[in-house]
Write a structure and sequence with these properties.
The complex is a heterodimer.
Chain A: E1 9-11, H1 16-25, E2 30-32, H2 36-39, E3 52-55, E4 65-67, E5 71-75, H3 80-86, H4 93-100, H5 105-108, H6 113-118, H7 125-132, E6 136-143, E7 146-153, E8 169-178, E9 184-190, E10 201-209, E11 214-223, E12 227-229, H8 232-238, H9 247-264, H10 270-293
Parallel strand pairs in A: 1-3, 2-3
Antiparallel strand pairs in A: 4-5, 5-8, 6-7, 6-8, 9-10, 10-11, 11-12
Chain B: E1 2-7, E2 10-15, H1 22-28, E3 48-51, E4 54-57, E5 70-72, H2 74-77, H3 81-93, H4 102-117, H5 142-149, H6 159-180
Parallel strand pairs in B: 1-5
Antiparallel strand pairs in B: 1-2, 3-4, 3-5
Helix pairs in contact in B: 3-4, 3-6, 4-6, 5-6
Classes of the chains: A alpha+beta, B alpha+beta.
The complex binds flavin-adenine dinucleotide and FE2/S2 (inorganic) cluster (2 copies).
One FE2/S2 (inorganic) cluster (FES) binds near residues 97, 101, 154 and 156 of chain B.
Chain lengths: ~290, ~180
Amino acid sequence: MYEGIRSPAIHTPRSVSEFISTASHYPHAVIWAGGTYIMGRPNYYPSDGLTDIIYLGEIADLKKITRNDRFIEIGSMVTASQLLNAGKLVLSDVLLDTLSKVGSKIVRKQITIGGALCTPDIRLVLPGSLAILDAIVEVKQIQGNKTINRWIPVSRLYDKDGQLLLTGMNLITRVRIGLETGNFQRFMMVDSPVHDPKRCVIFAFQCTKGQSNMSKAHFCFTFPTAGFHISRELETQLSGQPLPVPPQRINRLSFALTSEIHKMHPQVTDLQLERCRRMFEAVFHELNTEVLEE
Amino acid sequence: MKIECTIDGKHLSLSVNSNKPLSLILMEEAGNQSLNSRCRGNNCGNCIVLLNGEAVLSCMIPAFRLRGADIKTFDSFQKTRACHDIERAYAATGSKPCPNCYAAKTLIIESILQGLERPDDSQPFPLPARGRVQNLTEELDPENIIQELELNRCRCMDSAELLQIVNIAAGYRRRRRVRRN
Ligand SMILES: Cc1cc2nc3c(=O)[nH]c(=O)nc-3n(C[C@H](O)[C@H](O)[C@H](O)COP(=O)(O)OP(=O)(O)OC[C@H]3O[C@@H](n4cnc5c(N)ncnc54)[C@H](O)[C@@H]3O)c2cc1C
Ligand code: FES
Ligand code: FES
């Protein structure tokens, strides 16, 4: 059925430079990584508009993971499953937790890191965790015959509503994550971002827990279709916070957080706000417990 | 585009749109009997097949990735000993999936059993250790098993029943392997 519709041309570059030359010839082509987002669109097939596909699966350089003593670099075509397996000994807990919550093993084998960062209109589990780890991505922007190379922090890839800010023909080639991370990290998720995007809340948190106070707090709340929230102001307020954090202070912080989210992301539902408050407080109670146990 | 592949043991040469999902190819070109799912992105999880031996959602695999592929659907899987291990476990527990998701759930269980037998081989790059020592594979504990089975969105069986089936089927599989060796 539908065989009358023009079949999209499939381009399979074997290197990044071949990709660039193909992409400059076909600026409206769709970049194809694992294909799970693309094929999951309700109007995916038959599709009139899809004329050219650039499949990244033959570019060996995009499938590499390398590391030195300061950072690890992950090619954008590494799958969630490969990263979870290869990274067990090098990735931080928050990232391992995040990866293990993506779908199921069957889909993790297909989902790529680049694809997980570039879904245009829904924010899934990975961006928040990479953002709090201060990960940066290499982006090659192809404009006609010109290619602009930039490194962009993951936290700047999206607007406040979580929409991808890259427009035009952009290729993410690799993600770089520093190896120095906080000694207290948590990843929490309620409901599935794919099945219940309007109920789901995703929370990633890390800080350095010192003898008597905390520093370098970073956290991100993701509401898949309503917001990508990083609060620099609250992060600054948390820096130097004495430990354990008194309950009244946790209350005040979580109240400030939810008011801020409500104001900035009107699409976030009351249920999501309530969940977000609970998750934020739970992390501080866990932090306090760890401090008191030591 | 022309693709040559093997579906349920039959070598086929097909002329299809390059982006056509494997699920539709199976239903429309290959006369498949066990697949009947067109959820259009609702992630029903009813379209599982084995692609080169690994479970995949067939609606997520485009024709252009099928050149030379070996595809096994429930049509041929149900005639194998591997399937028999799982169907014996259904019989032993007295519970089995409903007709809607029978094929998909059975193939997911098969992929879980394979995972238990052959720890993940998708690790392409051995990396030097950093601090914590952990097992290098995605182990399948009960939580992971349930996570796998939840890929199929049918909810007629509860987690306890499914875990029991996987455990019993794994026992049959182990015993059969031991006998063979
Ligand atoms: C059943 C199921 C369950 C899932 N559950 C979860 C879950 O629980 N949590 C979760 O986070 N995700 C989940 N996902 C995955 C998620 O929905 C996306 O489908 C996935 O992240 C996309 O990755 P991909 O490699 O398949 O990308 P693709 O579908 O190939 O691409 C996604 C988008 O990114 C663009 N793109 C891809 N790679 C690049 C690149 N290198 N540079 C620039 N642009 C690029 C594409 O053009 C496209 O717009 C699930 C998917 C399925 C099918
Ligand atoms: S047809 Fe529903 S997930 Fe494939
Ligand atoms: S329809 Fe399959 S278990 Fe319910």
